[in-house]
Amino acid sequence: MCGISKFGAGAIHRGIALVLLPVLLLAASCDPPQAEPMRREPTLAAVADESATPKPDAPLPEPDPKLLAPNETTGEAPATFKAKFHTTKGEFVIAAHRDWSPKGVDRFHQLVKLGFFSDIAFFRAVDGFVAQFGIHGHPKVSAAWQKANIADEPVKEGNKRGRIVFAKAGPNTRTTQFFLNLGDNKNLDAMGFPAIGEIVEGMAVVDSLYKGYGEAPSGHQGTISAKGNAFLRQNFPKLDYITSAEIMP
């Protein structure tokens, strides 16, 4: 289903009252005009790197079949564990705590073990606010997880700087998108965004992620899902990426 395609976080972050829409972090698979009637997608020519030149679409290799079967991806996570993320800016480590959000941590653990986080863009990075990721770079994988929702859970641990949280587009819409809090965002606690873990190593790496595009790429989530990383690399070539992630021993 199509979720609200853009989070009104920019307004909250800047202290501006937002009255047109509920304030939600995005986890959309498509972005129809009726989802946000006042939004106009940024002109790509205005936000793309001037040195970027269009490249012909190349056939994508078929993804690992395991990535196309979310219903077969099950299993309970350990009570606590660490996951190391390798990025184009360096490494960071997340310590997950299952008692903070059992369903959320189970899904996070499953995704890391599955190898989902490979060539995953930080498509939205706003200084002092959040860095968001989780749309898969292969359209087939993105489509497979579109409706693999997990239920909401109460906020036991909130949105402090350095914590990782699921993005969503409404009630019970957590799938594969996450955001890292780059600042203390306590206002998100009352909106139902429970943390699932926190960065324990490499916060400086996360702070250094490219933020020059701001909110612009997140206005094109439907296109990102449909066209994958090819669209991002052509139009937003300076974005940083997760190259791989693994559960630490």
Write up this protein.
The chain is α+β, with helices and mostly antiparallel strands. The chain has a single domain, classed as Cyclophilin-like (Cyclophilin). Helices cover 19% and strands 19% of the residues. It is built from seven helices and eight strands. The protein has helices at residues 9-13, 44-47, 102-114, 139-144, 203-207, 221-227, 229-235; strands spanning 80-87, 90-97, 120-125, 130-133, 163-166, 178-181, 195-201, 241-247. A hairpin with a 4-residue loop joins strand 3 and strand 4. Residues 1-24 and 28-54 have low confidence and may be disordered.
Keywords:
249 residues; alpha+beta; Cyclophilin; eight-stranded antiparallel barrel; globular; disordered N terminus
Instruction: Kindly name the structural category.
Output: alpha+beta
Find the CATH topology.
Cyclophilin
Question: What's the story with the biggest beta sheet?
Answer: 8 strands, antiparallel, barrel
Q: List SSEs in N-to-C order.
A: HHEEHEEHEEEHHHE
| Mean pLDDT metric | 83
Rg: 17 Å
The structural domain count equals: 1
